From TrEMBL:
Entry-linked Gene3D superfamilies: 2,3-Dihydroxybiphenyl 1,2-Dioxygenase, domain 1
Organism: Actinocatenispora rupis
Pfam families attached to this UniProt entry: DUF6817 (PF20680), Glyoxalase (PF00903)
Protein name, per record: VOC domain-containing protein
InterPro entries: DUF6817, Glyas_Bleomycin-R_OHBP_Dase, Glyas_Fos-R_dOase_dom, GlyoxalaseI/FosfomycinResist, VOC_core
Highest taxon of the lineage: Bacteria
Domain VOC: 194-314
SUPFAM superfamilies in the cross-refs: Glyoxalase/Bleomycin resistance protein/Dihydroxybiphenyl dioxygenase
Origin organism lineage: Bacteria, Bacillati, Actinomycetota, Actinomycetes, Micromonosporales
Length: 316
């Protein structure tokens, strides 16, 4: 069963109001930040933490996480010697999390976040110590909410630092809540953008090459010391002869096991006439189907190995 978490926001509570007053008094509403102002960013971080199911102290710490500055944001709103001022506003437990967040020497601590236990290097004092698990989890959660918000509001930073942030948050996997991990994966996932090539295992490379060249206009290609392929558009089909597959290969390479859908630049009627002229038997179609971009019209046939080939066209 999927994990469910109650969302408990602290926005109507006195600590939220006190934190807002603290931040405004120290200019957070005037400081520029990706997505508007520092204050707007801090509010978004706190709300994200609430959405992820974080407790009140973590939400308040997220709202005030920049109070003492950070290794990446050298604009403290309050001197670390005056911690009691923030503690009076949001409570000692939340302030302790803010101090923990601000004290992080990222160059030393970030590479250790996959370890257990994690030795913490305090940038304020230069001291090192082991951090309790509960504090590490709060730190990781606030870090994820903060950095994902920054990258969501600045495309240049996202391009520059996205891969490093992905690596960091993957290292923090055991420390992050399920909603935080899901948000990380949604924002920073490596996404497939196109098909470069696929592999067909064939009984006879010459027969397959001639079929795809004659029926579908693919261009025979030889590469890599005699390997063979069929090029079309910006993609290609690499050919492996059964019993002589190139390593690495599929677990069960078998001729006739593929089911392909290929787009053609012809109407269904023109395609039928072309296939008839080539002596190709149509197994089914034209029939309506659904392609990656919407409705298509498809004609089905089989290649020399028995692979099912669907030739399709979108409405013009």
């Amino acid at each position: 069963m999927a994990e469910t978490r109650a969302v408990t926001t602290i926005e109507d509570g006195p600590e939220w109001q006190a934190a807002q007053a603290f931040l405004r008094d120290r200019g957070a509403a005037e400081l520029a930040h990706p997505g508007g102002t520092l204050l707007a960013h801090l509010v978004r971080v706190a709300r994200t933490l609430a959405d992820w199911g974080a407790g009140p102290d973590v939400q308040l710490a997220g709202l005030c996480h920049a109070a003492y500055g950070t290794a990446g944001f050298d604009r403290p709103l309050l001197d670390v010697a005056d911690r009691q001022v923030l503690a009076d506003a949001i409570g000692a437990p939340a302030e302790a999390l803010v101090h923990r967040y601000g004290s992080c020497d990222r160059d030393r601590v970030y590479p250790r976040l996959g370890e257990d236990p994690v030795r913490w290097h305090d940038r304020f004092t230069g001291e090192e110590h082991v951090v309790p698990e509960v504090e590490l989890r709060a730190f990781a959660e606030i870090t994820a909410a903060n950095e994902l918000d920054v990258l969501a509001h600045n495309a240049e930073l996202a391009e520059r630092y996205g891969p490093a942030l992905r690596e960091l948050l993957v290292r923090c996997d055991r420390l992050l809540s399920a909603p935080a991990r899901a948000a990380r994966d949604e924002a920073l996932a490596v996404r497939v953008t196109a098909l470069d090539h696929l592999v067909l295992t064939v009984a006879d490379a010459d027969r397959t090459t001639e079929f795809y060249r004659r029926v579908m206009g693919m261009r025979p290609v030889v590469f890599g010391g005699g390997r063979r392929a069929l090029a079309f558009g910006s993609s290609k089909i690499n050919l492996h002869v059964v019993g002589h597959e190139v390593v690495p290969h599929a677990a069960r390479p078998t001729p006739g096991s593929a089911d392909l859908c290929l787009l053609v630049d012809a109407t269904p009627d023109a395609l039928l006439a072309h296939l008839a002229a080539c002596g190709v038997v149509v197994e089914e179609g034209p029939v309506p189907r659904t392609g990656a971009r919407g409705p298509i019209t498809s004609v089905y046939l089989r290649d020399p190995d028995g692979n099912l080939v669907e030739l399709s066209s979108y409405p013009t």
